Amino acid sequence: MPRIDQPHPDVELGFPRQAVHYAVVLPDAGIGPRTGLVFYIFGFGSSYDDSYARRLLPYLANDHDCVAVAVDYQGAKAQSTLDADFAPDFFVNLQRIYQISVSATPELTQDVYAFMGELCQILAQAGITRLDPSCRLIKRGDRYVNFGILPALDLLQVAARTIAEYGIDRRRIFAIGTSYGGYLALLLTKLAPNTFRFVVDNCGFSGIDNVIYGATTWPGPVRVLIVSPQAFSMNPESPSYLGPARQAIRNLATPEHYQLPSATFAYSYHGEIDDIASPEAKQALSELLRQKGRHHALRLIGPDDLDGRVFKVPGHGLQASMRGLFQLSMERWLADARPAEPVTDFDLGTTNVLACADRDYVFEFGADGARLTIC
Hints:
Order of helices and strands: EEEHEEHHHEHEHEEEEHEHEHHEEE
CATH topology of the domain at 3-78 and 147-207 and 257-347: Rossmann fold
Number of helices: 10
CATH architecture of the domain at 3-78 and 147-207 and 257-347: 3-Layer(aba) Sandwich
Oligomer: single chain
Shape: globular
Structural class: alpha/beta
CATH class of the domain at 3-78 and 147-207 and 257-347: Alpha Beta
Helix content: 25-40%
Distance between the termini: 36 Å
Radius of gyration: 21 Å
Largest sheet: 8 strands, mixed
């Protein structure tokens, strides 16, 4: 497998980076003048080289004359978000904020998932949809998910290398992502506004709601913050504080971040009863993007839209066929779009300055990818 030996440094927290591996599948007919590039961006719990990716990439490569790529982006192999412990002050804050008194017995702390299920039932019945961040959980282990920024930089670095290595037709660069991968696909259009011709978002997050308890068997979704050990902190005095700036850059709905013009089309498909990634948040995001002049189309999938082929359930992920979604989006793009210019942000040397609370996140594009400076 090819790899990036020197990925973009972690300029926010300073954690060491490991090589970024990725899978590449070329079309059987070889590289031609119209051969494009398509990224498959998987979600949490999947892999760049799992059985699904090994089936999907050859299809994308051959049916759409593209170099098909899947990247083992930062945090992709972090352990399950359900593998977590209560923060030391979890129960104190639970009592203080919600007047829920619980004794932290050894039996309870051994089964965090079961307790959170019962707690979320109580909260949902009271109309609460988001647990206060002070009642947080902490992942076990020493891996952390940067959430958004480093994964996007990994994808952009691989994109720049692949475009140069294979002489990719710059008018045909695409991405399709599901769940967290759908969020990353949309984030790429924010950071690199003139590289991708279209992206497909299948039930992606709209912001930093990266960890969510709330299954379809519970009365309603309740979002619960889970932080990583020795990584982001909710303590304002900590240098790793997940403060307003770090949240704003990860939030797709930060209005000030869409100042640069963009010809990219984004097609979002979202379940009407998605209890993992909010359909209401996606609707609000879609309205914002269109107000900002971005080409965004949202299709909400309900029970009447299920066809057993592309869309199978109206919940998170839709049990959607990535092949079917990409084909559907390709047809829409060919009908919607004007002929694209054969340039990318890497060619243009784009500088994208994104104001985030008390600091700027500056993305500078060049032949080797994108570089981030925070000032």
